[in-house]
Amino acid sequence: MECPGPMKQFGAFRLDAGNQCLWRGSKRIAVRPRPFAVLEYLVEHPGRLVTHDEILDALWPETFVQPQILRTYVLDLRKVLGDDAGEPKYIETLPKRGYQFVAAVSTYLPSSPKAADAAAVPDAALAAPALAGREAELARLRAEFRSASGGQRRVVWVTGETGMGKTTLVDAFAGELEASGSATIARGQCVDGLAAREPYYPVTEALRALCASTSAETACAALARLAPAWLSAVGRGGAGERMVAPQERLPGNVMAALEAVAADAPLLLVLEDLQWADTYTLDLISALARRRAPAKLLVVATVRTLDAAAMPDSQRLMQELVTRHLSSEICLQPLTLRSMQTLLAAKLGQAELPAGLAGFVHRHSEGNPLFAVALLEHLMGERILVQEQEAGPWKARAPFETVERRVPSGLAQMIALEMEQLSAEEQTLLEAGSLMGVAFPAWAVAAALERDAAEAEEACEDLARRVHFIHRGGVDELPDGSRSTFFVFVHGLYREVLYDRQTAARRGRRHGRIARRLEELFAGREADVAREIAQHFEAAGEWRPAVDALLAAARRAGERQAQDEAAELRRQALALAGNLREAERQAVLESLGEPAL
């Protein structure tokens, strides 16, 4: 492995650009790709104002990114750094202008390669693609199992967003225990929509599997002796025995039976997707965690992370038990660039990756393993990644940054299926939000749909509390003194699917309404948001307003002596003028001092 290159050090932190993470002492701190990119840019330009436009142009030059999203990224960074916006040690906000990195920055030369980012991945890592970047979490599960094996009951929550690999991690852990024969394993899974109709569903499923396993004799005997109603519920009661109601399945009885099963060998009880759990199941987990009697029992529960405002009963229970030290949490973070390299190398079966592949997939998947694998398969299916000969190395046919960005079809279908579970009104709100970018203000949703602003904001607030697709980002103050909440999609791919599913005509009408609302909001100051206005008019196919907005922005840039920016804006205006009718096009050319065609 190559020695790591120099890092930037500030305060107690070191910025590892190659691995796209932070270090604090020997602890590696994962940071999402986009907030990390903002931090890296600020650290590279310390001690001076970095404007919003400069950051957006430098980091996402070909992508329309709402300025509000920068506030969300900086908020994330402040949480990671422990920074206070009122008395900043690292990032100072300069209202209406941008940010300044105020900490002293120095160069740090690592003495060991442990944090290095290398283009090649050790061959040993090629054998376990699913667990790339999850070695520490797997080690924690092993440690929890050792505690449980000694008689100290344990409840562990494995949390993370969709696609972070919760089930994959638990599968690998359970597979280890099963292969070694060191534990009895029972697994059950919650199903969306069943909570209200079938109490104890995941627990019943786990018991049913247990009674059909190699430990069936022990399990059935324990249930028959201590929890006969539960034995009947899993279909193992006597012939003709009636089905029992959930109220007859006392939690104390099944807990005693589970502990009896664990007397001979440690018991691993896995309950998945508890964001959809019924209250009976959650009460049982709570009771298992609170019982004081020793037991060789390890409960592993997986929960999809939601925004704090949308916290379901399962997350409230988890928070309470963790706070009281009655359980622990393993939160799966996005993969670092280094871990992404390991994942991709394992998937491709080669240690040396095509140049730029890991960075491209890491940026566009935002470190999400499920999305990363889907993007990789998309590149292979589109023959952007090819094998020139059978079993030969995979190579890139073109630079990855030139590849047209499209959501892989399989991933788009998965996201679309999730969207279909929402009402038509909820889908319409999200579609309108997608017109603005990853972050969107409520006023823009109202404008796109021709709705009352207050009603649209309330609807978005309610949606953010109930679904995981978006979360509340903050509040913007508008030029007229009013305030509007803005929201953020949890991942850019959700936004892209919602944008693409709208017909071109519908998108165009909505973009045009947003552009005109921007002109109203910034009346007299249109040049401040001229580029944004132009982008919406261009998307609407309204070419003359788009050209006029770009020319206004060019004039403002010229007044600021930003000649390069002014020239680029005029070039964009000239390009769009090609869509105008002859007379209008000639008028624009004359205003630009260009020769008539």
UniProtKB/TrEMBL annotation:
Molecular function GO labels: adenylate cyclase activity; ATP binding; DNA binding
Pfam families linked: AAA_16, Trans_reg_C
Keywords: ATP-binding, Coiled coil, DNA-binding, Nucleotide-binding
DNA-binding keyword on record: yes
Any one GO cellular component localisation term in the record: cytoplasm
A biological-process GO annotation: regulation of DNA-templated transcription
Superkingdom assignment: Bacteria
InterPro entries per the UniProt record, alphabetical: AAA_16, OmpR/PhoB-type_DNA-bd, P-loop_NTPase, Sig_transdc_resp-reg_C-effctor, WH-like_DNA-bd_sf
Any coiled-coil regions, as ranges: 559-586
Domain OmpR/PhoB-type: 5-103
Ranges annotated as DNA-binding: 5-103
UniProt-recorded name of the protein: OmpR/PhoB-type domain-containing protein
Species whose genome carries this gene: Acidobacterium capsulatum
